[in-house]
Write a sequence for this structure.
């Protein structure tokens, strides 16, 4: 029986391996992690991550051919194929700080594999890594290999949080990169055979190692670029009276461009886009390509601009001051159907409003109070490091921030409300009831274009939607940065 082990039981390792176990009942799959609380949660009724459909998949296989364990070394020792899906954060210190990928976790996983292995193994890069990481990993493994053969494959993951199970069941493609040697091709075939249990073979793309590694960074950069492009358009729409939804529709119906990923918003978030583009920028710089680096830098700059533009719009609309005013924040996760808050635009928007002395009342259907407080007081990029390494700012903003358990409580007596995540439940709120309980004038700032602005204006709200013609009230207020 083939045995697979995955190092790293996070947003990628957990769901990916659960689906692999479900689709390959004759393969034993062990997901291992150094974090005991995380493994305990995977073995409990409350899984450590929220993902539609995930509970069901885990329930069907856990204890049969899917196991979660902290005994990393034992499972690596026993496995034929070892996936590595550990975090690859942005470096916070030293050479390449603020851009380069920190491969500390990856390297320690590779060293451990080299130390404990007594039989040949295929080691699969599942984490998103800089192009040519496989070369470094190969050196670590072969240096300590005691005559054992290791084959390195790159098999980047393209799932999106919130739709991970759907994406894993029906991926657009699976990408496998390997060495162009007989042993490399044999390893590619072994992994292809695993995926072929449920993915049509023509959708399994096999390439060289460097193309596979770079394709993942490229895909994220292209996706984020679309969001920054439409967000840059949204600012111009507000200035000219065009409507970004109409523009996006008109542009997206061009079959060469396509309709997806053209929703204007308060900005992109999530653990990958910014981190991976920064990494790409660093690689361009290291290869002496400053123009290419600057091109991608702009995607991040526009995203930062969009978050700050939104927060400034809130302040300027409310007579240029939010000091002492209650502002409801609806949604904190970086997108709907996930409890993940890594790099969520809500962090920058909330911190900006707190700096202007607003009192925030935050509600998110999936994010716990402890997480929100931590996010609002953590140093940049620290979220992706192991807990003992994280720096929490001593002076918190806790008295200005209140976390509540429903949207009506959040908005009671508030001067304004900001929608920062597109949760479906926000579309069907009783806005008449909310209006009646708010201070007047009552403002809605819709950072996701999910509320029915026409209906809300009829109720009496002053409404700001991203990239839409402005209410006359907002037009008269000071211009925003
Ligand atoms: P995560 O932070 O949720 O999970 C990583 C896990 O690895 C943590 O639980 C950590 O305790 C564990 N870990 C770290 N070092 C370890 C070691 N030496 N031994 C055992 N366990 C160790 O991260 P996530 O989101 O799952 O991402 C993992 C990788 O996949 C990253 O490179 C990311 O860029 C990439 N990726 C993430 C996607 C996402 O949507 N979150 C999508 C596609 C790729």
């Amino acid at each position: 029986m083939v045995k697979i082990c995955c190092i790293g039981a996070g947003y990628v390792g957990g769901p990916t391996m659960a689906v692999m176990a479900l689709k390959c009942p004759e393969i034993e799959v062990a997901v291992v992690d150094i974090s005991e609380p995380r493994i305990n949660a995977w073995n409990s009724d409350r899984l450590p991550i929220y993902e539609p459909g995930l509970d069901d998949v885990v329930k069907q296989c856990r204890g049969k051919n899917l196991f979660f364990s902290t005994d990393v070394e034992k499972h690596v020792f026993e496995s034929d194929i070892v996936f590595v899906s550990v975090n690859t954060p942005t470096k916070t210190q030293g050479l390449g700080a603020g851009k380069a990928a920190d491969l500390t976790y990856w390297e320690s996983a590779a060293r451990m594999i080299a130390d404990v292995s007594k039989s040949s193994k295929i080691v699969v890069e599942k984490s998103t890594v800089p192009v040519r990481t496989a070369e470094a990993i190969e050196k670590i493994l072969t240096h300590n290999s005691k005559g054992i053969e290791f084959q390195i494959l790159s098999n980047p993951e393209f799932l999106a949080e919130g739709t991970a199970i759907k994406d894993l069941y029906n991926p657009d493609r699976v990408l496998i990169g390997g060495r162009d040697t007989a042993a490399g091709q044999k390893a590619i075939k072994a992994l292809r055979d695993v995926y072929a249990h449920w993915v049509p073979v023509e959708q399994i793309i096999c390439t060289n190692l460097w193309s596979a590694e770079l394709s993942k960074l490229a895909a994220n950069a292209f996706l984020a670029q679309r969001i920054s492009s439409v967000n840059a358009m949204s600012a111009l729409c507000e200035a000219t009276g065009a409507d970004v939804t109409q523009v996006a529709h008109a542009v997206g119906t061009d079959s060469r461009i396509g309709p997806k990923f053209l929703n204007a918003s308060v900005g992109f978030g999530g653990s990958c886009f910014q981190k991976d583009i920064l990494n790409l920028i660093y690689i361009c710089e290291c290869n002496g390509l400053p123009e290419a680096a600057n091109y991608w830098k702009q995607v991040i700059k526009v995203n930062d601009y969009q978050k700050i533009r939104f927060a400034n719009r809130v302040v300027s609309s409310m007579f240029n001051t939010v000091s002492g005013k209650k502002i409801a924040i609806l949604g904190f996760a970086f997108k709907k159907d996930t409890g993940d808050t890594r790099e969520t635009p809500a962090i920058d928007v909330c911190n900006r409003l707190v700096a202007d002395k607003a009192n925030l009342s935050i509600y998110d259907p999936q994010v716990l109070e402890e997480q929100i407080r931590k996010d609002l007081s953590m140093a940049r990029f620290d979220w992706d490091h192991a807990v003992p390494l994280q720096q929490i700012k001593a002076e918190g903003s806790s008295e200005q921030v209140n976390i509540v358990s429903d949207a009506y409580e959040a908005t009671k007596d508030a001067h304004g409300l900001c929608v920062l995540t597109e949760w479906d439940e926000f579309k069907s709120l009783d806005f008449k009831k909310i209006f009646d309980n708010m201070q007047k004038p009552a403002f809605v700032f819709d950072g996701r274009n999910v509320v029915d602005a026409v209906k809300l204006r009829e109720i009496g709200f002053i409404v700001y939607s991203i990239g839409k013609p402005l209410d006359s009230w907002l037009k008269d207020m000071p211009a925003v940065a």
